[in-house]
Amino acid sequence: MFNFSIFKKKRRPHQAAASRAGLGILVFEHTSEVIQAEKLLRSKGWEIRVMGPPPEIRTGCDLVVEFPLIEQLNILRLLESSGIQPLDIFPVTGQLLKPVDLFQVKDFGDYLMVRAANMKLTIEKKSRLIVNISGGGCPDVPYLAAMMVGKTLDESPRPLDLGHTLCGYALGLAFGEMEKQCLLL
Amino acid sequence: MLAVVGTVPDMAMELTVGEVILSGDSVLMAGKSMPVNRGTPALIGAACQILAVFGKTGITAFLAGDVGLGQGSRKIYHHLVHENSLSSVETIVFHYLQPDVDWHNRVLFRLSDMENRPVMVADAGFMYAAKMSGQAGEYDLFTPDAGELAFLADENAPHPFYTRGFILHGDNSVPDLVRRAYHHDNAAKYLLVKGATDYIMDETGLLSSVDGPSTEAMEAIGGTGDTLTGIVTALVHTGMTIADAALAGAKINRLAGFYANPTPATQIIEIIRQIPAAVESISNSKMTPCRFL
Predict the structure, then answer these.
(1) What is the mean pLDDT of residues B71-96?
(2) Which of A21, A95, B167, B201 is 20 to 30 A removed from B54 (C-alpha atoms)?
Protein backbone atom coordinates (compact mmCIF):
# COMPACT_ATOMS: atom_id res chain seq x y z
CA MET A 1 0.00 0.00 0.00
CA PHE A 2 1.19 3.45 -0.79
CA ASN A 3 0.89 5.92 2.04
CA PHE A 4 -1.46 8.60 0.99
CA SER A 5 0.32 11.20 2.98
CA ILE A 6 2.63 11.71 0.03
CA PHE A 7 0.03 14.19 -1.10
CA LYS A 8 0.56 16.50 1.82
CA LYS A 9 2.92 18.94 0.26
CA LYS A 10 2.31 22.17 -1.55
CA ARG A 11 -1.15 21.47 -2.75
CA ARG A 12 -3.34 24.38 -3.63
CA PRO A 13 -7.09 24.18 -3.61
CA HIS A 14 -8.33 23.72 -7.11
CA GLN A 15 -11.19 25.54 -8.65
CA ALA A 16 -14.24 23.40 -8.95
CA ALA A 17 -14.49 22.04 -12.46
CA ALA A 18 -18.04 22.39 -13.63
CA SER A 19 -17.45 19.96 -16.47
CA ARG A 20 -16.65 17.26 -13.97
CA ALA A 21 -19.93 17.58 -12.10
CA GLY A 22 -21.62 14.22 -11.99
CA LEU A 23 -18.42 12.28 -11.50
CA GLY A 24 -17.38 10.45 -8.38
CA ILE A 25 -14.25 8.73 -7.17
CA LEU A 26 -13.84 5.34 -5.57
CA VAL A 27 -11.06 5.19 -2.99
CA PHE A 28 -9.33 1.88 -2.25
CA GLU A 29 -6.76 0.82 0.26
CA HIS A 30 -4.36 -0.82 -2.19
CA THR A 31 -3.33 -0.01 -5.74
CA SER A 32 -3.90 -3.66 -6.60
CA GLU A 33 -7.60 -3.21 -5.68
CA VAL A 34 -7.80 -0.22 -8.00
CA ILE A 35 -6.40 -2.37 -10.77
CA GLN A 36 -8.94 -5.12 -10.10
CA ALA A 37 -11.80 -2.63 -10.01
CA GLU A 38 -10.63 -0.98 -13.22
CA LYS A 39 -10.49 -4.28 -15.06
CA LEU A 40 -13.88 -5.38 -13.79
CA LEU A 41 -15.68 -2.13 -14.52
CA ARG A 42 -14.17 -1.77 -17.98
CA SER A 43 -15.08 -5.37 -18.77
CA LYS A 44 -18.68 -4.47 -18.01
CA GLY A 45 -18.59 -1.46 -20.28
CA TRP A 46 -18.46 1.39 -17.80
CA GLU A 47 -16.57 4.49 -18.79
CA ILE A 48 -14.19 5.00 -15.93
CA ARG A 49 -10.73 6.47 -15.52
CA VAL A 50 -7.91 5.72 -13.14
CA MET A 51 -6.61 9.00 -11.79
CA GLY A 52 -4.66 10.54 -8.94
CA PRO A 53 -6.69 11.45 -5.88
CA PRO A 54 -7.43 15.04 -4.86
CA PRO A 55 -5.25 16.40 -2.05
CA GLU A 56 -8.03 16.53 0.49
CA ILE A 57 -8.42 12.75 0.44
CA ARG A 58 -6.32 11.38 3.28
CA THR A 59 -7.15 7.72 3.10
CA GLY A 60 -6.42 4.98 0.62
CA CYS A 61 -3.73 4.48 -1.98
CA ASP A 62 -2.42 6.81 -4.66
CA LEU A 63 -4.90 5.95 -7.38
CA VAL A 64 -8.66 6.40 -7.52
CA VAL A 65 -11.30 5.28 -9.99
CA GLU A 66 -13.34 8.11 -11.47
CA PHE A 67 -16.84 7.00 -12.39
CA PRO A 68 -20.24 8.44 -13.33
CA LEU A 69 -21.79 9.23 -9.97
CA ILE A 70 -25.24 8.34 -11.10
CA GLU A 71 -24.10 4.76 -11.57
CA GLN A 72 -22.90 4.49 -8.00
CA LEU A 73 -25.32 1.85 -6.83
CA ASN A 74 -24.81 -0.40 -9.83
CA ILE A 75 -21.07 -0.06 -9.63
CA LEU A 76 -20.95 -0.72 -5.91
CA ARG A 77 -23.14 -3.78 -6.32
CA LEU A 78 -20.85 -5.18 -8.99
CA LEU A 79 -17.68 -4.48 -6.99
CA GLU A 80 -19.07 -5.96 -3.82
CA SER A 81 -20.29 -9.07 -5.63
CA SER A 82 -16.69 -9.52 -6.75
CA GLY A 83 -15.26 -9.00 -3.30
CA ILE A 84 -13.79 -5.58 -4.04
CA GLN A 85 -14.74 -3.12 -1.33
CA PRO A 86 -13.86 0.56 -1.72
CA LEU A 87 -12.81 2.42 1.39
CA ASP A 88 -14.89 5.45 0.47
CA ILE A 89 -16.72 7.30 -2.27
CA PHE A 90 -16.62 11.03 -2.94
CA PRO A 91 -18.04 13.34 -5.60
CA VAL A 92 -15.43 14.98 -7.81
CA THR A 93 -15.13 18.63 -6.85
CA GLY A 94 -11.87 19.60 -8.51
CA GLN A 95 -9.15 18.65 -10.90
CA LEU A 96 -7.67 15.20 -10.42
CA LEU A 97 -4.07 14.35 -11.15
CA LYS A 98 -3.69 12.77 -14.55
CA PRO A 99 -1.45 9.72 -14.93
CA VAL A 100 1.39 9.95 -17.37
CA ASP A 101 0.32 9.18 -20.90
CA LEU A 102 3.56 9.76 -22.77
CA PHE A 103 5.42 6.72 -23.99
CA GLN A 104 8.93 6.78 -25.34
CA VAL A 105 9.93 3.97 -27.67
CA LYS A 106 13.56 3.22 -28.44
CA ASP A 107 14.63 0.80 -31.14
CA PHE A 108 17.95 -0.95 -30.44
CA GLY A 109 17.83 -3.04 -33.60
CA ASP A 110 17.27 -6.53 -32.25
CA TYR A 111 15.65 -5.10 -29.13
CA LEU A 112 12.84 -2.68 -28.40
CA MET A 113 12.41 -0.58 -25.27
CA VAL A 114 9.28 1.23 -24.08
CA ARG A 115 9.40 3.80 -21.31
CA ALA A 116 6.33 4.92 -19.37
CA ALA A 117 7.00 7.52 -16.70
CA ASN A 118 9.95 6.13 -14.75
CA MET A 119 9.64 2.52 -15.96
CA LYS A 120 11.39 0.87 -18.90
CA LEU A 121 10.61 -2.51 -20.42
CA THR A 122 12.86 -4.09 -23.06
CA ILE A 123 12.18 -7.12 -25.24
CA GLU A 124 14.05 -9.03 -27.89
CA LYS A 125 12.04 -8.42 -31.06
CA LYS A 126 12.44 -11.86 -32.60
CA SER A 127 11.32 -13.89 -29.61
CA ARG A 128 9.39 -11.18 -27.72
CA LEU A 129 11.35 -12.25 -24.70
CA ILE A 130 11.46 -9.72 -21.89
CA VAL A 131 15.19 -9.18 -21.42
CA ASN A 132 15.27 -6.29 -18.97
CA ILE A 133 13.15 -4.07 -16.77
CA SER A 134 14.70 -0.92 -15.42
CA GLY A 135 13.78 2.27 -13.63
CA GLY A 136 11.26 2.74 -10.88
CA GLY A 137 11.74 3.11 -7.18
CA CYS A 138 8.95 1.22 -5.44
CA PRO A 139 9.60 -2.20 -3.92
CA ASP A 140 7.41 -4.12 -6.33
CA VAL A 141 9.71 -3.24 -9.25
CA PRO A 142 12.45 -5.77 -8.36
CA TYR A 143 9.70 -8.31 -7.65
CA LEU A 144 7.99 -7.71 -10.99
CA ALA A 145 11.34 -7.88 -12.77
CA ALA A 146 12.10 -11.22 -11.11
CA MET A 147 8.73 -12.56 -12.23
CA MET A 148 8.87 -11.22 -15.79
CA VAL A 149 12.43 -11.13 -17.11
CA GLY A 150 13.23 -14.25 -19.12
CA LYS A 151 9.62 -14.81 -20.16
CA THR A 152 7.95 -13.85 -23.41
CA LEU A 153 5.24 -11.20 -23.40
CA ASP A 154 2.68 -13.97 -23.73
CA GLU A 155 4.13 -16.08 -20.93
CA SER A 156 4.81 -13.24 -18.55
CA PRO A 157 2.47 -12.34 -15.73
CA ARG A 158 0.97 -8.92 -16.36
CA PRO A 159 2.29 -6.14 -14.14
CA LEU A 160 -1.24 -4.94 -13.49
CA ASP A 161 -2.04 -8.34 -11.99
CA LEU A 162 1.00 -8.49 -9.71
CA GLY A 163 1.96 -4.88 -9.03
CA HIS A 164 0.94 -2.92 -5.98
CA THR A 165 2.33 0.58 -6.51
CA LEU A 166 2.35 3.39 -9.02
CA CYS A 167 5.66 2.08 -10.38
CA GLY A 168 3.94 -1.27 -10.95
CA TYR A 169 1.08 0.52 -12.64
CA ALA A 170 3.50 2.45 -14.86
CA LEU A 171 5.18 -0.82 -15.81
CA GLY A 172 1.73 -2.14 -16.68
CA LEU A 173 1.24 0.81 -19.04
CA ALA A 174 4.65 0.14 -20.61
CA PHE A 175 3.69 -3.52 -21.00
CA GLY A 176 0.45 -2.56 -22.77
CA GLU A 177 2.27 -0.16 -25.06
CA MET A 178 4.86 -2.83 -25.83
CA GLU A 179 2.09 -5.19 -26.90
CA LYS A 180 0.81 -2.50 -29.26
CA GLN A 181 4.30 -1.88 -30.61
CA CYS A 182 4.73 -5.59 -31.27
CA LEU A 183 1.71 -5.54 -33.54
CA LEU A 184 3.69 -3.16 -35.76
CA LEU A 185 6.80 -5.37 -35.94
CA MET B 1 30.16 2.66 8.77
CA LEU B 2 28.49 2.77 5.36
CA ALA B 3 24.80 1.92 5.69
CA VAL B 4 22.58 0.75 2.84
CA VAL B 5 18.84 0.84 3.48
CA GLY B 6 16.50 -0.95 1.08
CA THR B 7 14.28 -3.91 0.33
CA VAL B 8 14.50 -7.21 -1.52
CA PRO B 9 11.68 -8.93 -3.38
CA ASP B 10 11.40 -11.84 -0.96
CA MET B 11 8.47 -11.77 1.42
CA ALA B 12 10.10 -14.45 3.54
CA MET B 13 12.94 -12.15 4.46
CA GLU B 14 12.42 -10.57 7.86
CA LEU B 15 14.08 -7.32 8.83
CA THR B 16 17.79 -8.07 8.83
CA VAL B 17 20.61 -5.76 9.87
CA GLY B 18 24.19 -6.78 9.38
CA GLU B 19 27.35 -6.70 7.34
CA VAL B 20 27.07 -7.59 3.67
CA ILE B 21 29.67 -8.95 1.31
CA LEU B 22 29.70 -9.71 -2.39
CA SER B 23 30.45 -13.35 -3.14
CA GLY B 24 30.35 -14.34 -6.77
CA ASP B 25 26.97 -13.33 -8.16
CA SER B 26 25.33 -12.98 -4.76
CA VAL B 27 25.24 -10.70 -1.77
CA LEU B 28 25.70 -12.57 1.51
CA MET B 29 24.19 -11.33 4.74
CA ALA B 30 23.46 -13.07 8.01
CA GLY B 31 23.62 -16.48 6.38
CA LYS B 32 21.33 -15.45 3.55
CA SER B 33 22.28 -15.27 -0.10
CA MET B 34 20.59 -12.76 -2.39
CA PRO B 35 21.11 -12.72 -6.16
CA VAL B 36 22.59 -9.53 -7.52
CA ASN B 37 20.25 -8.90 -10.40
CA ARG B 38 18.89 -5.41 -9.76
CA GLY B 39 17.66 -3.11 -7.04
CA THR B 40 19.31 -2.82 -3.66
CA PRO B 41 21.46 -5.97 -4.02
CA ALA B 42 22.94 -4.42 -7.19
CA LEU B 43 23.69 -1.21 -5.28
CA ILE B 44 25.35 -3.25 -2.53
CA GLY B 45 27.33 -5.30 -5.03
CA ALA B 46 28.72 -2.20 -6.71
CA ALA B 47 29.56 -0.54 -3.39
CA CYS B 48 31.35 -3.71 -2.24
CA GLN B 49 33.45 -3.69 -5.39
CA ILE B 50 34.52 -0.09 -4.83
CA LEU B 51 35.41 -0.58 -1.18
CA ALA B 52 37.33 -3.73 -2.09
CA VAL B 53 39.54 -1.71 -4.42
CA PHE B 54 40.47 0.40 -1.41
CA GLY B 55 41.01 -2.69 0.71
CA LYS B 56 37.95 -1.92 2.79
CA THR B 57 34.81 -3.69 3.89
CA GLY B 58 32.25 -2.60 6.38
CA ILE B 59 28.94 -2.13 4.58
CA THR B 60 26.03 -2.63 6.93
CA ALA B 61 22.68 -3.24 5.27
CA PHE B 62 19.21 -2.70 6.67
CA LEU B 63 17.06 -4.98 4.51
CA ALA B 64 13.61 -6.55 4.59
CA GLY B 65 11.40 -8.37 2.13
CA ASP B 66 8.85 -6.18 0.34
CA VAL B 67 6.97 -6.77 -2.90
CA GLY B 68 5.17 -3.44 -2.95
CA LEU B 69 2.72 -3.68 -0.08
CA GLY B 70 5.05 -1.77 2.21
CA GLN B 71 5.27 -4.15 5.15
CA GLY B 72 9.01 -4.68 4.86
CA SER B 73 9.66 -0.99 4.33
CA ARG B 74 7.71 -0.11 7.45
CA LYS B 75 9.70 -2.62 9.50
CA ILE B 76 12.88 -0.90 8.35
CA TYR B 77 11.51 2.57 9.07
CA HIS B 78 10.42 1.49 12.52
CA HIS B 79 13.84 0.01 13.23
CA LEU B 80 15.68 3.12 12.08
CA VAL B 81 13.54 5.37 14.24
CA HIS B 82 13.38 3.26 17.38
CA GLU B 83 16.58 1.23 17.55
CA ASN B 84 19.98 2.59 18.37
CA SER B 85 21.80 1.14 15.40
CA LEU B 86 22.76 4.31 13.53
CA SER B 87 25.30 5.80 15.92
CA SER B 88 28.36 4.72 13.94
CA VAL B 89 26.94 5.49 10.51
CA GLU B 90 29.08 7.96 8.56
CA THR B 91 27.44 7.54 5.16
CA ILE B 92 23.93 6.29 4.49
CA VAL B 93 22.10 5.56 1.26
CA PHE B 94 18.34 5.01 1.05
CA HIS B 95 17.07 3.01 -1.86
CA TYR B 96 14.08 0.81 -2.80
CA LEU B 97 11.63 1.67 -0.05
CA GLN B 98 7.90 2.26 -0.10
CA PRO B 99 7.49 6.04 -0.37
CA ASP B 100 5.88 7.18 2.87
CA VAL B 101 6.25 10.80 3.89
CA ASP B 102 5.30 10.29 7.52
CA TRP B 103 7.89 7.57 8.05
CA HIS B 104 10.39 9.50 5.94
CA ASN B 105 10.07 12.48 8.23
CA ARG B 106 10.56 10.40 11.35
CA VAL B 107 13.69 8.83 9.88
CA LEU B 108 15.03 12.21 8.83
CA PHE B 109 14.41 13.70 12.27
CA ARG B 110 16.20 10.74 13.81
CA LEU B 111 19.23 11.31 11.59
CA SER B 112 19.14 15.05 12.16
CA ASP B 113 19.30 14.49 15.90
CA MET B 114 22.55 12.55 15.64
CA GLU B 115 25.61 14.21 17.04
CA ASN B 116 27.52 13.52 13.85
CA ARG B 117 25.03 13.58 11.06
CA PRO B 118 26.00 11.17 8.28
CA VAL B 119 26.33 12.01 4.62
CA MET B 120 22.88 11.20 3.25
CA VAL B 121 22.20 9.86 -0.25
CA ALA B 122 18.72 9.03 -1.51
CA ASP B 123 17.57 7.24 -4.63
CA ALA B 124 14.47 5.36 -5.80
CA GLY B 125 11.38 5.29 -3.56
CA PHE B 126 12.97 7.05 -0.62
CA MET B 127 13.99 9.91 -2.89
CA TYR B 128 10.34 10.20 -3.96
CA ALA B 129 9.27 10.53 -0.33
CA ALA B 130 12.08 12.99 0.39
CA LYS B 131 10.91 15.21 -2.44
CA MET B 132 7.28 15.11 -1.40
CA SER B 133 8.16 15.85 2.21
CA GLY B 134 9.48 19.25 1.14
CA GLN B 135 12.80 18.44 2.79
CA ALA B 136 14.86 17.39 -0.21
CA GLY B 137 17.45 20.01 0.65
CA GLU B 138 18.33 18.11 3.81
CA TYR B 139 19.98 15.43 1.67
CA ASP B 140 23.49 15.60 0.30
CA LEU B 141 22.86 13.74 -2.96
CA PHE B 142 19.99 12.51 -5.10
CA THR B 143 20.71 10.25 -8.07
CA PRO B 144 17.68 10.50 -10.38
CA ASP B 145 17.40 9.27 -13.94
CA ALA B 146 15.72 11.39 -16.60
CA GLY B 147 12.17 10.35 -15.66
CA GLU B 148 12.82 10.91 -11.98
CA LEU B 149 14.43 14.28 -12.66
CA ALA B 150 11.23 15.35 -14.44
CA PHE B 151 9.34 14.29 -11.32
CA LEU B 152 11.65 16.36 -9.11
CA ALA B 153 11.13 19.29 -11.46
CA ASP B 154 7.34 19.02 -11.32
CA GLU B 155 6.34 20.73 -8.11
CA ASN B 156 2.86 19.20 -8.29
CA ALA B 157 3.74 15.54 -8.94
CA PRO B 158 3.57 13.24 -5.90
CA HIS B 159 5.18 10.39 -7.87
CA PRO B 160 6.85 10.06 -11.29
CA PHE B 161 3.61 8.46 -12.48
CA TYR B 162 1.91 11.88 -12.31
CA THR B 163 4.66 13.98 -13.88
CA ARG B 164 2.99 16.44 -16.22
CA GLY B 165 3.64 15.91 -19.89
CA PHE B 166 5.07 19.33 -20.64
CA ILE B 167 7.80 18.63 -18.10
CA LEU B 168 8.31 14.98 -18.96
CA HIS B 169 8.67 15.78 -22.64
CA GLY B 170 12.09 14.98 -24.02
CA ASP B 171 12.66 18.49 -25.32
CA ASN B 172 13.44 19.79 -21.85
CA SER B 173 17.15 19.92 -21.17
CA VAL B 174 18.54 18.33 -18.01
CA PRO B 175 20.03 21.63 -16.75
CA ASP B 176 16.65 23.35 -17.22
CA LEU B 177 14.85 20.64 -15.26
CA VAL B 178 17.49 20.76 -12.54
CA ARG B 179 17.05 24.52 -12.23
CA ARG B 180 13.31 24.01 -11.94
CA ALA B 181 13.79 21.36 -9.25
CA TYR B 182 16.01 23.69 -7.22
CA HIS B 183 13.61 26.59 -7.74
CA HIS B 184 10.88 24.58 -6.04
CA ASP B 185 13.21 23.24 -3.32
CA ASN B 186 12.85 19.72 -4.61
CA ALA B 187 16.51 18.77 -4.98
CA ALA B 188 19.28 17.62 -2.69
CA LYS B 189 22.44 19.67 -2.25
CA TYR B 190 23.91 17.79 -5.20
CA LEU B 191 22.21 15.99 -8.07
CA LEU B 192 23.76 13.27 -10.18
CA VAL B 193 21.41 12.86 -13.12
CA LYS B 194 21.93 9.49 -14.79
CA GLY B 195 21.44 9.25 -18.52
CA ALA B 196 23.00 9.39 -21.97
CA THR B 197 25.06 12.17 -20.45
CA ASP B 198 25.53 12.10 -16.70
CA TYR B 199 25.22 15.55 -15.14
CA ILE B 200 26.61 16.58 -11.78
CA MET B 201 24.89 19.74 -10.65
CA ASP B 202 24.13 21.79 -7.61
CA GLU B 203 22.11 24.92 -6.98
CA THR B 204 24.73 27.04 -8.73
CA GLY B 205 24.46 25.05 -11.95
CA LEU B 206 26.49 22.50 -13.85
CA LEU B 207 29.58 21.23 -12.06
CA SER B 208 30.62 18.56 -14.52
CA SER B 209 29.26 16.07 -17.00
CA VAL B 210 30.30 12.76 -18.49
CA ASP B 211 29.22 11.45 -21.86
CA GLY B 212 31.71 8.73 -22.59
CA PRO B 213 32.23 5.98 -23.13
CA SER B 214 28.75 5.91 -24.54
CA THR B 215 27.12 2.49 -24.49
CA GLU B 216 23.56 2.90 -25.63
CA ALA B 217 22.38 -0.47 -24.33
CA MET B 218 23.04 0.62 -20.73
CA GLU B 219 19.75 2.49 -20.68
CA ALA B 220 17.78 -0.73 -21.02
CA ILE B 221 19.69 -2.74 -18.43
CA GLY B 222 18.00 -2.99 -15.07
CA GLY B 223 20.32 -1.97 -12.27
CA THR B 224 22.70 0.42 -14.02
CA GLY B 225 21.32 3.30 -11.98
CA ASP B 226 21.57 1.23 -8.83
CA THR B 227 25.22 0.47 -9.46
CA LEU B 228 26.01 4.13 -10.07
CA THR B 229 24.38 5.10 -6.80
CA GLY B 230 26.32 2.35 -5.01
CA ILE B 231 29.62 3.37 -6.58
CA VAL B 232 29.23 7.04 -5.73
CA THR B 233 28.10 6.35 -2.18
CA ALA B 234 31.10 4.10 -1.60
CA LEU B 235 33.46 6.71 -3.04
CA VAL B 236 31.97 9.35 -0.76
CA HIS B 237 32.53 6.97 2.11
CA THR B 238 36.22 6.79 1.27
CA GLY B 239 36.44 10.52 1.89
CA MET B 240 35.91 12.06 -1.51
CA THR B 241 33.84 15.18 -1.90
CA ILE B 242 30.40 14.52 -3.28
CA ALA B 243 31.10 16.39 -6.50
CA ASP B 244 34.30 14.44 -7.14
CA ALA B 245 32.70 11.15 -6.17
CA ALA B 246 29.79 11.76 -8.52
CA LEU B 247 32.10 12.54 -11.42
CA ALA B 248 34.39 9.61 -10.73
CA GLY B 249 31.42 7.31 -10.15
CA ALA B 250 29.83 8.27 -13.45
CA LYS B 251 33.08 7.48 -15.24
CA ILE B 252 33.56 4.18 -13.44
CA ASN B 253 30.00 3.03 -14.11
CA ARG B 254 30.24 3.91 -17.79
CA LEU B 255 33.59 2.24 -18.19
CA ALA B 256 32.42 -0.89 -16.39
CA GLY B 257 29.47 -0.98 -18.78
CA PHE B 258 31.76 -0.50 -21.74
CA TYR B 259 34.02 -3.33 -20.61
CA ALA B 260 31.01 -5.65 -20.28
CA ASN B 261 30.31 -5.09 -24.00
CA PRO B 262 26.61 -5.14 -23.25
CA THR B 263 23.47 -5.65 -25.27
CA PRO B 264 20.04 -4.61 -23.98
CA ALA B 265 19.76 -8.20 -22.68
CA THR B 266 22.89 -8.00 -20.51
CA GLN B 267 22.32 -8.51 -16.78
CA ILE B 268 23.76 -6.12 -14.23
CA ILE B 269 26.09 -8.59 -12.55
CA GLU B 270 28.16 -8.64 -15.73
CA ILE B 271 28.77 -4.91 -15.32
CA ILE B 272 29.44 -5.15 -11.59
CA ARG B 273 32.20 -7.66 -12.33
CA GLN B 274 33.96 -5.01 -14.42
CA ILE B 275 34.01 -2.32 -11.74
CA PRO B 276 37.50 -3.09 -10.39
CA ALA B 277 38.95 -2.92 -13.91
CA ALA B 278 37.15 0.35 -14.51
CA VAL B 279 38.51 1.85 -11.30
CA GLU B 280 42.01 0.74 -12.20
CA SER B 281 41.72 2.23 -15.66
CA ILE B 282 40.46 5.55 -14.39
CA SER B 283 43.04 5.75 -11.64
CA ASN B 284 45.74 5.31 -14.28
CA SER B 285 44.23 7.90 -16.58
CA LYS B 286 45.66 11.37 -16.73
CA MET B 287 42.22 12.62 -17.64
CA THR B 288 40.70 11.72 -14.33
CA PRO B 289 39.95 14.28 -11.69
CA CYS B 290 40.12 11.41 -9.17
CA ARG B 291 43.27 12.53 -7.46
CA PHE B 292 42.53 10.21 -4.57
CA LEU B 293 42.61 7.09 -6.68
Answers:
(1) 95
(2) B201
- B72 at the A interface (CB within 8 A)? yes
Chain B: residue whose CA lies nearest to A104: B170
Q: Which of B7, B66, B145 lies closest to A135 in CB terms? A: B145
Instruction: Say if residue B77's pLDDT is above 80.
Output: yes
DSSP class of residue B289 equals: -
* Tens of pLDDT, residues B133-158: 999 999 999 999 988 999 999 998 88
Sign of CA dihedral B209, B47, B271, B127: negative
CATH number (domain holding residue B128): 3.40.1190.20
Per the structure, the complete domain to which residue A136 belongs is given by 103-183
From A102, A111, A163, residue closest to B220, measured CB to CB: A111
Which chain A residue has its CA at the smallest distance from B170's CA? A104
| CB-closest option in A124, A133, A139 to B7 | A139
Domain presence at residue B208: yes
Confidence of residue B219 (pLDDT cuts 50, 70, 90): very high
Residues B149, A118: contact at Cβ < 8 Å? no
To the nearest whole angstrom, how far is the Cα of B285 from the nearest Cα of chain A? 31
User: Residue A2 pLDDT > 50, yes or no?
Assistant: no
A121 and A75 share one domain: no
**B227 in Cβ contact with B271 (< 8 Å):** yes
CB contact under 8 A, A143 and B68: yes
Are A131 and B265 an interchain contact pair (Cβ–Cβ within 8 Å)?
yes
The reply to whether A87 and A107 lie within a common domain is no
Write out pLDDT tens, residues A61-119: 788 999 988 788 889 989 999 999 999 988 887 778 888 877 999 999 999 999 998 89
Q: Give the model's pLDDT for residue A59.
A: 66
Q: Is residue A97 part of a domain?
A: no
- Single pTM value for the model: 0.89
**Residue of chain A whose Cα is closest to the Cα of B154:** A10
Question: Are B264 and A141 an interchain contact pair (Cβ–Cβ within 8 Å)?
Answer: no
Mean pLDDT, to the nearest integer, of B233-257? 98
What is the rounded end-to-end Cα distance, in angstroms, of chain A? Answer: 37
Q: How many CB atoms lie within 10 A of CB B133?
A: 20
CB B268 within 8 A of CB B225: no
Amino acid at A78: L
Residue A60: pLDDT band with limits 50, 70, 90: low
Range(s) of the domain holding residue B268: 36-57+88-102+115-284
Domains in chain A, number: 2
